């Protein structure tokens, strides 16, 4: 199997994702990603008919037997304070989240 993600490219991706991996974890993950890419390329090589309909699963589900989509209606939660009470920190009815430090990508 030819590695499509070489160690240098993987190191760059790890840096962009701000991951902290030791050498063994990094090599394992790089091998797994390459294996997944190989599997994807094998699937891409399977010849398919141009008019093959797109499905989300292998069972035919034509519109004639499909349930209509449910209406997208807003329904208020009966006790929003119950949700707020579960947060580690809240203020004036809102969940307080910690500030995430940003770094400039080069």
What is shown here, in short?
InterPro entries: Asp/Glu-ADT_sf_sub_c, GatC. The chain is mainly alpha-helical.
Feature tags:
GatC, mainly alpha, Asp/Glu-ADT_sf_sub_c
Give me the secondary-structure topology:
Blueprint: H1 7-16, H2 23-44, H3 80-85, E1 90-91, E2 94-95
Antiparallel strand pairs: 1-2
Biggest pleated-sheet summary: 2 strands, antiparallel
Helix segment tally: 3
**Sheet with most strands: strand arrangement:** 1-2
Provide the structure class.
mainly alpha
Overall shape: flat
Helix-residue proportion:
25-40%
What would you report as the Rg, rounded to the nearest angstrom? Answer: 24 Å
Number of DSSP E strands: 2
Mean pLDDT: 88
Distance between the termini: 32 Å
Low-confidence stretches: none
Helix-strand sequence: HHHEE
Strand content: under 5%
Protein name: Aspartyl/glutamyl-tRNA amidotransferase subunit C
InterPro entries: Asp/Glu-ADT_sf_sub_c, GatC
